[in-house]
Amino acid sequence: AAGKSRADGGEAESDWYAGASARLILAPVAYNQDRHDLGKSLFEETAVAAQEHDDTALLHHTLYQAGTTALLNEELADARRWYTALVEADNAAAQTKAAALIGLANVAHRERDIDAAIRDCEAALELFKGENDVARTARTLTLYGALLHEQGDTDTGLKILSESLALCRRRDDMLGVAHALQNLGYAAIEVD
Predict the structure, then answer these.
(1) Cα end-to-end span (Å), the chain
(2) What global pTM score does this model have?
(3) Please, are residues 31 and 39 in contact by the beta-carbon 8 Å criterion?
(4) Number of helical H runs and strand E runs in the chain
(5) pLDDT tens column, 98-150
(6) What is the largest CA-CA distance in the chain?
């Protein structure tokens, strides 16, 4: 029955969940084997099953994974559709919506729409900061600073990249430090 948790839903409830989980695992595999239509279908079936069974956590995970898989496979319209559905979901957590906004920023960047990418980054930053998520704020600042630099606002971009570097260093986030330094390096090369 809709609304029941997997723990108390009985055999039928666990069967649908096992099927949905299997589809969620197989969908990216299908994409990796250049069977994109099959991958899309598996994601769609999982999303429908999650909605039918009121499993918002699975639905949100499916939307995000589908968007990311489409983005990685350069299917930008599909990525935008999945991420937008997640951003527009009434019951999605702020951090989940912010992660989807970062996905949308990446889609816009690949489409060479820097203004839209910056707007999506700003919206994600607001959500991450509102949740006091320092790690994701720092990582998002790296993308935001790089986008501002690419747009031509080099001074602000460098300032934000430096802010991201400082936050990553304070957290001992070596991958974040590396990304911030890499982007600062690209900016420095282009300024000279």
Answers:
(1) 64
(2) 0.86
(3) yes
(4) 9, 0
(5) 999 999 999 999 999 999 999 999 999 999 999 999 999 999 999 999 999 99
(6) 66
